[in-house]
Amino acid sequence: MMSVKADRLLRNARHVAYFRKRGHPGKARQLVNGLLHAEVTEYPMEYPLTTEIPHDDPRYIAQLSSFYQDWQSRLTQLTRSEDVIVLCEGDPFFYGSFMHLHARLSGRIPVEVVPGITGMSGAWTATDLPITWGDDVMTVVMATLPEAELARRIRETDALVVMKIGRNLPKLRRAVAAAGRMDAAWLVEHAAMPGQRVTMLAEAEAVTPYFSILLIHGQGRRP
Ligand SMILES: C[S@@+](CC[C@H](N)C(=O)[O-])C[C@H]1O[C@@H](n2cnc3c(N)ncnc32)[C@H](O)[C@@H]1O
User: How remote is the CA of residue 63 from the centroid of ligand 1, in Å?
Assistant: First the structure.
């Protein structure tokens, strides 16, 4: 899913960059198959690493920082003569990798961000139920948080969105159970993408793909 504006910009673009994991086609790139101009030049920005070392390890921070710095220089150079589109999944300013490039590019070259349709929006639509009613408070958390913190947030909110689940699924399952909300928790894999799958958390398998979101719908006031 993308906006009409993003579609128009993309179809006319001659230079398109996107992030991808080494040896993978890149989800953002796959999603625009068939939309790119015949004369487009592509710039796959390959992460030097993803989950090989912990995110707080100084080596991880150093390698990723130099990766973003390198692409900041290359894109700055390229945009002296050309417009470049950087593809993102969902909204670029919502937990997106593009933010790390944006922080390095903005102020040096003109950057326009086109808002996107977030994965969570695709996820609650896939359940065919509203996520918030009336005064419901919605909390968005990352499954990477400590278990006790997850359980507290899940207990205290009306509606819930959990992202970055992956290998944290067993911990998340325990936190949802501790908060007493297992019966209301839905798991959506590949929302609005080929292979979309919707299950109740209680019935979900032990492993979930990178593109997975857990939802608890608010039950707030309604007429
Ligand atoms: C780095 S964040 C990027 C979020 C993105 N910018 C957005 O607006 O949705 C990646 C996480 O978003 C969630 N996600 C994004 N798109 C999704 C989709 N279509 N289906 C399921 N989960 C998705 C997953 O939890 C994934 O681990």
Answer: 23
Is 193 close to ligand 1, i.e. is its CB under 6 Å away? yes
Does residue 54 surpass a pLDDT of 80? no
Select the more confidently predicted residue: 75 or 221.
75
Q: How far apart are CA 203 and CA 199, in angstroms?
A: 7
Ligand 1: distance of its center to the CA of 82 in Å?
Answer: 30
Q: Using most ligand atoms within 8 A of CB, pick from 124, 131, 163 the residue to mutate for ligand 1.
A: 163
CATH architecture of 4-105: 3-Layer(aba) Sandwich (3.40)
Model confidence pLDDT, tens digit, residues 113-134: 999 999 999 999 999 999 999 9
Q: Which helix (H) or strand (E) holds 77?
A: helix 58-78
53-62, 141-150, 155-164: which has the minimum mean pLDDT? 53-62
pLDDT of residue 29: 95
Nearest to 120 by CA among 192, 182, 168, 177: 192
Domain coordinates in residue numbering, the chain: 4-105, 119-216
Please indicate whether residue 133, judged by its CB atom, sits closer than 6 Å to ligand 1. Answer: no
Q: Where are the beta strands (DSSP E) in the chain?
A: 15-21, 41-47, 85-86, 138-142, 159-163, 185-189, 197-200, 212-216
CATH number of 119-216: 3.30.950.10
